Structure formats: structure tokens, C-alpha cells
User: Which sequence fits this backbone?
């Protein structure tokens, strides 16, 4: 596996948190980092974070005639609806989920789009193996936000991935439910029903169904160890005031 596809320019700047930001702000950080790295040629970033309760809708979802109903269902279920940059269909996550975003500047971002999906999926497979969970890359019939690059068990989706390409760069995002999968399953069941999309709720699962001791700290540790085993890591902190700062880098 060519993991260099995820970090095509030198070291990986790894951002830890901040966690539990308001969903509108949280969802904006990836695209803002992408704009920054494309404009400044700042290289490759990854951010590991824990979100608040969020329903992330794509531009495809926004064009659906029942879009307003999606917003109502999210709010009724205690999830904040937001529009996300990458494509696909609706996904949801909460405080016991983990989000991993990769962004990088690259002159020809389309050329390795599929291979980047596979590289990211393989990173998660390695991290999940540290947690005692066997996984592979593929697509499950009737899964939520379907795609052939999901990280799966035989009949359940563990990690969903999505990607956005822009001129000069890309954003690759993944989410995994670690514990307490029922609220997300209930929400997405209602959302996909309103979409008239044939989704099987049984494909939605949290990692703790495989091992009740798994928590977000252990998964973040496994994911961080996996990143360090493949990349030259520069640990960074995101500072939020009127602008975003990553060490000496400023994102307007």
C-alpha cells in the first residue's frame, strides 16, 4: 500500500482536536485548512477530533425535495444539521465518535482519488486490528452513505469515508462510531426513510459491540500509533480566535 499518497509533501502535520466544537464551526475547519494549504502550498495535514451530535448532509442531500424534512428530523433527534464539503449521502456522528480529516495540496488531485480512499481505509484496518477488530475494505448491500471504499466487517459498516477535490488539493474525511450507536442508527433510519432510500439499519454499528471495553481514547491512541508508524509526524495544535492557527500557520 502506498501511504505516501496521503502525505505527498514531506511530513504530516497532525492536529489533535479541539474536541466538541459547535457543529457549524467544526465542519468548516477541514475546508478552511484545505484552502490554506492550496493557497500557501503548506503540505499535508491530518486532524483527529471528537464532534458534538451532528447530521452531516451533502450537496446531493440538499437537492432532495425532502431536504427541509431532513433538518426537522435531525433537530427532533437532538442532532445539529450541517452541510459538509465531501460528497456522498447523509452521515451522522456524536460525542462518542471519532473524525479523521486529511487535507493536502497536490497539483493533480484527481489522479489518485481511488487509491487515497484505499490508503485511508488500510490505516483504519491497521488501527482497528490493534483494538482486536478484524476489518476489510468494501461495500455492504444497503449500507448508509454507500461506497466501495467503506471499512467493513462481513455485514456491518465500521468506517465511512468521503472525499472532496479542488484545484490544487483534496480533503479526505472518515468517521467511526466508537460507542452508543443506537442514537445514530435511529436518526439515519429516519433520514434515509425520508429520502426513500433503501438502507438497512443493521449495517450501522459502534465498535463497542465487538468489545465492550473499547472507548474513544483507545481508538484515538491506536489511530495515532498507526499514523506514526507510516509518516514523519509534526504534532500541531489548532488555536481558535478570530482566525485558526496551526503553530506558525494561519488559516483565515
Assistant:
Amino acid at each position: 500500500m502506498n501511504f505516501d499518497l496521503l502525505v505527498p509533501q514531506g511530513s504530516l502535520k497532525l492536529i489533535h482536536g479541539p474536541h466538541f466544537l459547535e457543529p457549524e464551526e467544526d465542519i468548516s475547519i477541514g475546508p478552511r485548512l484545505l484552502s490554506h494549504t492550496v493557497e500557501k502550498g503548506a503540505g499535508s495535514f491530518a486532524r483527529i477530533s471528537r464532534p458534538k451530535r451532528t447530521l452531516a448532509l451533502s450537496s446531493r442531500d440538499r437537492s432532495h425535495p425532502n431536504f427541509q424534512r431532513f433538518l426537522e428530523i435531525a433537530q427532533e433527534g437532538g442532532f445539529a444539521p450541517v452541510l459538509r464539503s465531501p460528497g456522498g449521502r447523509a452521515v451522522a456522528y456524536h460525542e462518542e465518535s471519532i473524525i479523521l480529516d486529511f487535507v493536502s495540496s497536490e497539483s493533480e488531485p484527481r489522479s489518485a482519488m481511488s487509491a487515497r480512499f484505499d490508503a485511508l481505509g488500510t490505516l483504519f484496518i491497521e488501527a482497528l486490528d490493534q483494538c482486536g477488530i478484524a476489518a476489510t475494505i468494501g461495500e455492504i448491500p444497503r449500507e448508509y452513505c454507500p461506497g466501495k471504499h467503506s471499512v467493513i466487517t462481513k455485514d456491518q459498516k465500521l468506517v465511512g469515508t468521503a472525499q472532496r477535490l479542488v484545484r490544487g488539493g483534496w480533503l479526505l474525511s472518515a468517521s467511526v462510531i466508537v460507542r452508543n450507536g443506537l442514537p445514530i442508527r435511529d436518526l439515519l433510519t429516519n433520514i434515509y426513510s425520508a429520502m426513500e432510500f433503501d438502507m438497512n439499519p443493521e449495517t450501522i454499528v459502534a465498535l463497542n459491540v465487538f468489545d465492550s471495553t473499547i472507548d474513544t481514547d483507545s481508538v484515538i491512541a491506536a489511530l495515532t500509533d498507526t499514523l506514526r508508524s507510516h509518516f514523519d509526524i509534526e504534532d500541531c495544535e489548532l488555536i481558535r480566535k478570530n482566525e485558526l492557527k496551526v503553530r506558525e500557520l494561519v488559516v483565515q
Remarks:
- The longest strand covers residues 157-166.
